[in-house]
Amino acid sequence: MSQTQDRVVIFDTTLRDGEQSPGASLNTAEKIEIAHALERLKVDVIEAGFPITSPDDFEAVRRISSELEYPTICGLARAVEDDIVRAAEALEPAKKPRIHTFIGTSPLHRDHQLRKSKREVLDMAVNAVELATTLADDVEFSPMDASRTELDYLVEIVEATIEAGAGTVNIPDTVGYAIPERFAELIAELFERVSNIDRAIISVHCHNDLGLGVSNSLAAVRAGARQVECSVNGLGERAGNASLEEVVMALRTRKDYFGVDVGLDTTRLVPTSKLVAALTGISVQRNKAIVGRNAFAHESGIHQDGILKERQTFEIMNPEDVGARQTELVLGKHSGRHALRARIEEMGLVLSQEQLDDLFERFKVLADKKKEIYDEDLTAMVEEELAEAPELFQLVSFQISSGGEMVPTATVRIRDTATDDTVTDAATGDGPVDAIYNCISRITGIECRLLDYEIRAVTVGRDAQGEVTIQVGTDALKANGRAVSTDILEASARAYLRAINQIAVRTEGAENASQ
Ligand code: MN
User: Fold this and answer.
1) Which superfamily, per CATH, for 9-280?
2) Which residues place a Cβ less than 5 A from the ion ligand 1?
3) What is the pLDDT of residue 342?
């Protein structure tokens, strides 16, 4: 395959690089939910994780490998035997497995991180690719920090790893240092100088530290790259990766210029973006291209007038093409179990019968409080369903008095599921949320600092559910909690208790382990 090939492979790394975003951490159930959404979006390759790093990562890659039908499932591995073998084990159930192995090739990485010579790094890369090809038919190699690697050496290593059997060679701009024109020149140089380049697909993986991730990726496509590594909502280390939705819609909308095809079902872009935002707890800025709330909103009178007369006056894409539509009323009090199930399936969510039953119970409770139930309400509930938080302590009830000159006071009743005791206590605080948190800490005996607290309305209207996302920390541990409710104080209390429960379980586990 060569430059003339006109299809760009979309390689999604939301579950690997995206999951490394500071503040985002997904449990296995959440990763599987996102993987199913990516399959519906029809991405070509899903990088499902880095199996050697933890048993959880291994398990997630393995389950995604066994549950998904169509996409290639990729596991990441350093250029060492243990990593590669572990990745192969995790990918074993996959219909189309790919092992992705990498090593740092720039002088900075060679000298400081690896302390190895050019020759040693080259040998490790070749050996890794050779080993990987004995375990999978599809192997990808990445010379990490390629954009800061000496060009002659990069040419040598790309050629050697293609020779060793890499079907895809990825050129990462690991630190987001590249500039579009120069990055395109680099890719063009490789096409010129790597003698066997027609035997591999050249890929790029661009970080967004200078806000150039998408631009660099597109410039590379013009120069012949035929795989782009990207992530939903641009998640990833630091400032993130090239955003999948922007790359895909740029290639689509400007096909006149790029002349390439992408295989995605773009009408799934907005729903997938929403799901990823909800499950990672990292929301999308309003004016974000393609998937932001304002992406298709026209404010100026002249623009609105133009749009009404002829949409193309001020719109280069149809909102429907990316799955952006007016929030629709979907369900209400009288909707039954079947309607709920149908809607869940239509949204691309995959739930077990038991999870659906639980969801239906919660749906009924919510429908009593809130007349109109939107897709976002369902996503928020599913998200809670997937949180799999252990429930050592359960919230039974709470009561708040605050306002004006009063000292905010919370009375909270909590059940300890281990002993079945119910404890009631009261505490004061700077505000109602602080009072609740002080009280929960008093009852559970777990003191922690609140590191982050975010609240947002799940949908529109004054009866909208509030979603509270928090992060708490003790000296040794950090934990996240999330909850939704029409009552924001209740959501605040439940989110905190979730985080407390995780800390309680992990502290207990550590104590048992040390005994
Ligand atoms: Mn990366």
Assistant:
1) Aldolase class I (3.20.20.70)
2) 17
3) 82
Please list, residue by residue across 102-124, b when 16 or more beta carbons sit within 10 angstroms of its beta carbon and e when fewer do: bbbbbeebbeeebebebeebbeb
Distance (Å) from CA 172 to ligand 1 centroid? 7
Q: How far is the CA of 28 from the centre of ligand 1 (A)?
A: 21
Q: Which CATH class is domain 390-514?
A: alpha beta
Domain segments of the chain as ranges: 9-280, 297-386, 390-514
The rounded Å distance from CA 177 to ligand 1 centre is 12
Q: pLDDT by residue (tens digit) across 323-342?
A: 887 555 568 888 888 888 88
Q: Model confidence over 196-218: pLDDT tens digits? A: 999 999 999 999 999 999 999 99
Residue appearing with tokens 């709470």: 398
Q: Residue 194 C-alpha to ligand 1 middle, in angstroms?
A: 24
Q: What is the pLDDT of residues 332-378, one digit of tens each?
A: 888 888 888 888 887 778 888 888 898 899 898 888 888 888 888 88
Measured in Å, residue 192 CA sits from the centre of ligand 1 at 26
Q: DSSP per residue over 39-56, as a string?
A: HHHT-SEEEEE-GGG-HH
Q: What is the DSSP letter of 231?
A: B
Sequence-ordered strand ranges (E) for 145-235: 168-173, 201-206, 227-230
**How far, in Å, is the centroid of ligand 1 from the Cα of 179?**
17
Quote the ligand 1 centre to 322 CA distance (angstroms): 26
Q: What is the pTM of this model?
A: 0.83
